Amino acid sequence: MDASSPISAIEALSTTRAIRRYTNDPIPAETLNQILWCASRAPSGSNRQPFRFLAVTDGQVADKVKSLLGDSFRKGWAAKLKYDGYQTGSGQDPNSPKSRQAATMQHYVDHIEQVPVIVFACLVRYRDASPTEGASIYPACQNLLIAARSLGFGGALTMWHQGVEAELRELLAIPDNVAISACITLGKPQGSHGPVRRRPIAELVFENQWGASPSWAVDPDGTRFTSAGPK
């Protein structure tokens, strides 16, 4: 899949997963431009478009940023590995979904320095920080991920940049009134995209009353399910 033969929106939506294993292939500038153009089409409160995207690609500054992120990501994953029980229960079986997820995460944090492109999704604040401000930045992040998927690339949205945010702000000259709302890694997947595993739609969609699953909440034939996540 390449930029000349994008997939349909429905296929992109149903197959966009977090991609954490990348090849060393660069993302062509014209493709990165197309991905970020799609991100910039997202809606925002009062159409203010307060989102900004700071793409880190290559060069001396990029190397320093990726080094900082490598340290922060590895510390973040080490804590999650311990406190989320990845090494207990089924995590002791190397073939279990939990173990495979842990292996993917370990590979991810061990190779942050080699990620082709890292995008900081930023929000220019025009008022004090608000719990609702995410509505003006995260739709753009999802646009970005879906566009990347459509064009044969993939990404993962994280917040593990927060451990070194002060250093990143100084290095990237990010103003104080700008929030770093997400850190998105992008690259060509080592594996392949495919239908994602999620909970059945009947567990997630209600009608008229909480907990009342509608009769029309039916998954398409061939849907694959998971029981992962909090109960």
In short:
By secondary structure, this protein is of the alpha+beta class. It is 35% helix and 13% strand.
Give a written overview of the molecule.
With 231 residues, the chain is of the alpha+beta class. It has two domains: 9-195, NADH Oxidase (3-Layer(aba) Sandwich); 197-231, no CATH class. The protein contains seven helices and four strands; from the N terminus they run ααβααβαβαβα. A four-stranded antiparallel beta sheet has the order 1-2-4-3. α1 packs across α5 (138-150) and α3 (60-83) runs antiparallel to α6. The model has no long low-confidence stretch (mean pLDDT 92).
Write a concise keyword list for the protein shown above.
231 residues; alpha+beta; NADH Oxidase; 2 domains; four-stranded antiparallel beta sheet
Task: Write the SSE topology.
Blueprint: H1 9-15, H2 29-40, E1 51-56, H3 60-83, H4 97-110, E2 117-124, H5 138-150, E3 154-158, H6 165-172, E4 178-187, H7 201-204
Antiparallel strand pairs: 1-2, 2-4, 3-4
Helix pairs in contact: 1-5, 2-5, 3-4, 3-6
